[in-house]
């Protein structure tokens, strides 16, 4: 069993798959805290968890524009470069896939709204490391690839890449991170080093990082080339050729989800109910508004958490929201409440999942709705 050395996990996680281990954060706990504690941070593994010997650990930096391959031990990274700590939300491209699957079956793990979490990550800037390696940009350089230490049965590592402009820009704050919420990064989340790419889909935030390769091409990894891409609802499956012609997901679209109360909870007519949730957008775009509407009433505006105030263009972490809604007095039956977030480019979530359906079930960012059962 290649998974026999996987770490033990907090029993409160909502497990979606055991081998490889995939689990989401319970929604009530998610809405409770701005920073997600390590034990309940969602886990998305494609392969068995590797257990590198940190005393022998070295990060390799190589490829186009780097005159000579450079290697760093963990201590060299920590001692050579200034460290930075930033709050960054990671969201899986498959977050909320379950809702898309209900509209019409998709391929992939059945995620609820908990494949998203926020931590304070400490590390060194990738831009500093590249500078130290005497990296020189030229017109044939397009991508920076990352390789993990987790390997598939054919001995190929998990990998991903990002456009080079994001990697070299210190303002994008791409981190080679060795701490998560002040502790060594736990085994499930990439010990001893992972890349954190603020504002970019979870899949590119490679864990157990072993190698950085600058290239004209995207990462050759299956997960860069033949997964984590979006297609028209007209496309029901895709050949490698069709995948090659599609664009890899990087920054994610604007998102929100109502986390509390649980859908299908029972409330009394006339109650004041507090709806709580999160909103987030890719690329550092901040959340400027969350609107909430019931099928019985007009739009109202939710309160955005003050904790989430972030610098312009650098809203790397989510914005929790809450709003009190009055359940009508003379009513019995189901009421449906929906949230939709707006980011600072005035992008807004689409109304329904049917029209954004895509066969791998990624990019599910329609309005988030819950039903409440009202009793008299
Ligand atoms: N990195 C490696 N090496 N192996 C993986 O399976 N999964 C990716 C990414 N980095 C993965 C990886 C995906 S799809 C996501 S959503 C995030 O890690 C999840 O990070 P987390 O498990 O720390 O929440
Ligand atoms: Mo993911």
UniProtKB/TrEMBL annotation:
Record has Heme as a keyword: yes
One of the GO BP terms on file: sulfur compound metabolic process
UniProt cofactor(s): Mo-molybdopterin; heme b
Keyword list, A-Z: Heme, Iron, Metal-binding, Mitochondrion, Molybdenum, Oxidoreductase
A GO MF label: heme binding
Pathway this chain belongs to: Energy metabolism; sulfur metabolism
Domain of life of the organism encoding this protein: Eukaryota
Compartments, record wording: Mitochondrion intermembrane space
Protein's UniProt keywords contain Chaperone: no
Listed GO CC annotations: mitochondrial intermembrane space
The EC number(s) this enzyme carries: 1.8.3.1
Subunit architecture: Homodimer.
Name this polypeptide is given: sulfite oxidase
Native organism: Acrasis kona
Residues of the full protein shown: 178 to 553 of 708
């Amino acid at each position: 069993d290649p998974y026999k050395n996987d770490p033990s996990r907090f029993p409160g996680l909502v497990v979606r798959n055991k081998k490889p281990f995939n689990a989401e954060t319970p929604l009530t706990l998610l809405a409770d805290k701005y920073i997600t504690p390590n034990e309940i941070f969602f886990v998305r593994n494609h392969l068995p968890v590797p257990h590198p010997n940190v005393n022998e650990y070295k990060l390799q930096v190589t490829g186009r524009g780097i005159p000579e391959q450079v290697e760093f031990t963990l201590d060299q990274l920590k001692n050579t470069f200034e460290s930075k700590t930033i709050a960054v939300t990671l969201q899986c491209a498959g977050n909320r896939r379950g809702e898309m699957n209900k509209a019409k079956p998709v391929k992939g793990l059945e995620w609820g709204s908990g494949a998203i979490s926020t931590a304070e990550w400490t590390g060194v800037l990738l831009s500093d490391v590249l500078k130290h390696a005497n990296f020189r940009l030229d017109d044939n350089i397009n991508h920076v690839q990352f390789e993990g230490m987790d390997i598939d049965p054919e001995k190929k590592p998990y990998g991903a890449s990002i456009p080079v402009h994001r990697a070299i820009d210190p303002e994008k704050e791409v981190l080679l991170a060795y701490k998560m919420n002040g502790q060594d990064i736990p085994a499930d989340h990439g010990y001893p080093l992972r890349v954190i790419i603020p504002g970019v889909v979870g899949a590119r935030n490679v864990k157990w990082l072993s190698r950085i390769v600058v290239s004209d091409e995207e990462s050759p990894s299956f997960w860069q080339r033949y997964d984590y891409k979006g297609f028209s609802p007209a496309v029901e499956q895709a050949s490698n050729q069709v995948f090659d012609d599609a664009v890899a997901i990087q920054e994610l679209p604007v998102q929100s989800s109502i986390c509390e109360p649980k859908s299908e909870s029972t409330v009394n007519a006339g109650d004041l109910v507090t709806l709580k949730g999160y909103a987030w957008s890719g690329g550092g775009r901040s959340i400027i508004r969350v609107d909430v509407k019931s099928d019985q009433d007009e739009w109202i505006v939710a309160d955005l958490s003050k904790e989430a105030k972030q610098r312009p263009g650098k809203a790397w972490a989510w914005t929790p929201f809450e709003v009190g809604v009055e359940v009508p007095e003379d009513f019995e039956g189901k009421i449906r409440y929906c949230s939709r977030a707006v980011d600072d480019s005035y992008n807004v979530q689409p109304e329904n999942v049917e029209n954004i359906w895509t066969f791998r079930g990624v990019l599910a960012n329609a309005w988030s709705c819950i039903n409440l059962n009202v009793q008299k």
